[in-house]
Amino acid sequence: MGPNIKIALIIWLILINIIAFFLFGADKGRAKKEAWRISEKTLFGAAILGGSLGAICGMHLFRHKTKHWYFRYGLPLLLLIHLGLGFWLVPMIS
User: Fold this and answer.
1) What is the pTM of this model?
2) What does the alpha-carbon distance between residue 58 and residue 83 come to, in Å, rounded to a whole number?
3) What pLDDT is attached to residue 94?
């Protein structure tokens, strides 16, 4: 596969991780203000789409969702899955 796919994948991963990070921050801010919240489905969705590292960083930095076992263990598991897929797919893309 060509270099365009590699660049697109890198850009996607950077953007989705930034989005996941800021979703956790925004939801924490909304929780403090008792405002409309971002659904857990959306938070996990961003992580599943490749933003697991950003979600983990946001979860810890903003101290948000750290008591929920499915975030505390699910997000690191997603990160491991993403890393495994990366190590498996990178040789195919190269």
Assistant:
1) 0.91
2) 19
3) 67
